Amino acid sequence: MIDAREILVRCDALARESSDPNGIERVYLSPELAAVNRRAGEWMKEAGLTTWLDAAGNQRGRLEGREPGLPAVLLGSHLDTVPNAGRFDGILGVMLAIAVAERLRESAAELPFALEIAAFADEEGTRFGTALLGSRALAGTWDDAFWHLTDDNGTTLREAFVEFGLDPERIADASPKRGEIVAYLEAHIEQGPYLEEADLPLAVVSSIAGARRFALTLTGEAGHAGGVPFHRRHDALAGASEVVLAVEQLARSAGCVATVGRLQAFPGGVNVIPGRVEFSLDLRGETDAARDGVWLGIQAVASEVCDRRGLAFAVEETHNAPAVVADASLQDSIRAGIRTATGEQDPMVLFSKAGHDAMAVAELAPWAMLFIRNGHGGISHHPDETVTEADVAVALDAFEAAVRGLAASQTA
Ligand code: HGY
Ligand code: MN
Ligand code: MN
User: Fold this and answer.
1) What separation in Å is there between the alpha carbon of 41 and the centre of ligand 1?
2) Which domain holds residue 38?
3) Nearest ligand (C-alpha, residue 321)
4) Is any atom of ligand 1 closer than 6 Å to the C-beta of 355?
5) Side-chain half-sphere of 96: how many Cα atoms within 13 Å?
6) Model pTM?
7) Most buried pick, 60, 131, 192, 242, via CB within 10 A?
8) Closest-approaching ligand to the CA atom of 124
9) C-alpha 81 – ligand 2 centre gap (Å)
């Protein structure tokens, strides 16, 4: 049977499927993603599932319940990564799902539901900027405007689909019919410090922050770094710098989080005043209202800076995922699983500021999540992501107990 050690061995094996020789990077519809889909599909088959690649490039698997064709409980997470990623963000959840399915295989004939797995192909949005593409296809919330998204090489999402061997016209086939998925459970490393601070291995997730992403452009006037006096300058980078500091200050004061992860000044000469700056904004809040209030504040600062400095301000929204609340009874299933596995009578409950595929799947089915302690202060989106074999072992026991508890509650 797959144990915690094997799960960690598999996470290490998938970490080697990377487009970056010096780190982990695996983006949507890439050869590296095809490689990990194949590996995960083989492991799903070994665990007793029938497998398929869905119309959006998600690797899928299914174990029938006590009779064929029953609605399914879906377990899942994602196999794509951010640049310079850790080995566990998403991947650990998929490996735990496969191990739980293997443990339930012997008693599948008593399950009141089928068990399905989704290894989502694009939770991060690294390649095309818009996140949750794989899980949105499954949830049936795909937007045809996505086809025109382009990556850094100018390849459109539609072209990338065809190159990957997928048919864009069949995208709707990725989404099960209403009622075919009755619940979604996801296990994921905590991308924060709270389990480590509390010295606990597991937590149940209460809700996930609503996220919006933007591509912002400030345009001024390039010029000679020596010849142009300050009062005549329209320096896009100096202006952008004022906006970036306001992003941090406004988000902090509203209890939200906001990050400028990418910024590029053009034309980029050391002796040229930047005429244009393009930068990203990732903005999240426990409520959409709080998040959107910060966005209004950022826009007000940007227009004041632009007026004062003679700059132009352009905005493109690249991602918008509303805050979602976990289903109360599924949270109880996860809580009961944690109690069974650890003896902890009052498991920790955490609000997730990190986004997850559950945000998209929430459109299709009720959901809940299990968090696993992540070492080094909970660092993530970083090679230092760390989980211990002991924590993975209790996570596997808790996740299995949660699914068994769900089955028992539906059989009673
Ligand atoms: O950005 C996030 O929160 C997630 O890891 N995609
Ligand atoms: Mn991530
Ligand atoms: Mn993730």
Assistant:
1) 24
2) 4-209+323-411
3) 1
4) yes
5) 35
6) 0.92
7) 131
8) 1
9) 6
Residues 27 and 114 in one domain: yes
Among candidate residues 292, 321, 350, the one where a domain is terminated = 321
Domain end: 304, 321, 338, which one?
A: 321
pLDDT in tens, the chain (412 residues): 999 999 999 999 999 999 999 999 999 999 999 999 999 999 999 999 999 999 999 999 999 999 999 999 999 999 999 999 999 999 999 999 999 999 999 999 999 999 999 999 999 999 999 999 999 999 999 999 999 999 999 999 999 999 999 999 999 999 999 899 999 999 999 999 999 999 999 999 999 999 999 999 999 999 999 999 999 999 999 999 999 999 999 999 999 999 999 999 999 999 999 999 999 999 999 999 999 999 999 999 999 999 999 999 999 999 999 999 999 999 999 999 999 999 999 999 999 999 999 999 999 999 999 999 999 899 999 999 999 999 999 999 999 999 999 999 988 6
Element holding 305 (H helix, E strand): helix 288-309
Q: Is the CB of 124 under 6 A from ligand 1?
A: yes
Q: E strand or H helix at 183, and its extent?
A: strand 181-189
Reading phi first (left if > 0) and then psi (alpha if -120 to 50, else beta), residue 103 is in: alpha
CB 285 within 8 A of CB 321: no
- Ligand 1 in reach of 133 Cβ (< 6 A): no
What are the strands, taking DSSP E only, across 267-407?
272-273, 276-285, 312-321, 324-325, 348-352, 367-372
